[in-house]
Design brief:
With 284 residues, the chain is of the alpha+beta class. The chain is built from eight helices and seven strands, in the order H-E-E-H-H-E-E-H-H-E-E-H-H-E-H.
Length: 284
């Protein structure tokens, strides 16, 4: 079945850039503010070029990791700190600089050095979260050792050990999700602030004041609430998360009359399906 799976993967890879472009275009065409719609003007070929470069970086890393596995961690770190920032910068340029609000274009402008600096800060957060996870794993291992396993079967000791194992598993899951939420919220705050603070609309500036620790706490606590509510609190946690992001996002516009509607464009229904499939967040 390898040939079938490979064929499906290649077809998906060929369609993915086009589907991404359709999804983003559909989302913007069906969004308006003050009765002025947004629109998207990026060409499909730029999505394919960006995807090609991304695939080339991934393939190069896999080849190096297979040939010289000892260098894989070092190469991965170099790619994360230097290649990924440039790819992310190109992606933001492609999305934001081809987005329009009526007759006014958005503009995202940043230097390579600023983008690399951002990913250095993200790397520090990665190290911090990894240390938390390592400490948690160590504590769970120690607790499991304390519980121990008896050689002879006894219903009381078996019940005690089973309850202890379940408790440890639940504790480990809670801590893992909490740390994952911390990572998601902190990184989202860093990326969102950076994007907002480097984006303009007709020379009017955006500003992001999200605090990484605050959004990290909201994200982590949301993860725990979702776990214990079996997902029933998803709408509440989603609104809570977005509410904080919106309350800390600003747009310094002195005159909205400068924006003129270019009319609503017809949308391709396939864009709606692609949007549901990818659930793409364009970052502002």
């Amino acid at each position: 079945m390898f040939s079938v799976a490979a064929t499906i993967f290649l077809l998906f890879l060929l369609l993915m850039p086009w589907l991404m472009r359709q999804a983003i275009s559909f989302k913007l065409k069906n969004t308006s503010y003050r009765n002025i719609p947004f629109r998207f003007s990026a060409k499909r070929r730029y999505f394919y070029i960006l995807t090609l470069f991304t695939v080339m970086v991934i393939v190069a890393y896999i080849i190096v990791a297979v040939i010289v596995p000892q260098l894989a961690p070092l190469i991965g770190l170099v790619l994360f700190l230097f290649a990924l920032p440039l790819l992310y910068r190109s992606y933001k340029h492609l999305i934001i600089n081809n987005t329009w609000y009526g007759n006014a274009p958005f503009a995202f402008s940043t230097t390579r050095r600023e983008m690399i600096g951002l990913f250095f800060r993200i790397a520090l957060w990665n190290i911090f979260i990894s240390l938390l996870l390592a400490l948690t794993a160590l504590l769970i291992t120690k607790a499991a050792t304390v519980i121990g396993v008896t050689d002879s079967f006894d219903i009381r000791s078996f019940a005690k050990e089973s309850f202890g194992s379940i408790a440890l598993t639940l504790f480990g899951t809670v801590v893992y999700l909490f740390n994952l939420g911390l990572y998601k919220g902190a990184i989202d705050a860093l990326l969102s602030n950076f994007t907002r603070n480097h984006t303009t609309l007709n020379s009017a500036k955006f500003k992001g004041t999200l605090h990484p620790l605050k959004l990290a706490w909201i994200s982590a606590s949301n993860a725990i609430l979702l776990l214990f509510s079996l997902g029933l609190l998803y709408p509440w946690t989603r609104v809570r998360y977005l509410k904080y992001k919106m309350e800390n996002s600003f747009f310094a516009c002195s005159n909205y009359d400068d924006f003129i509607s270019s009319g609503f464009e017809k949308s391709n229904p396939l864009g709606e399906e692609a949007l549901d499939f990818f659930d793409i967040d364009i970052g502002f």
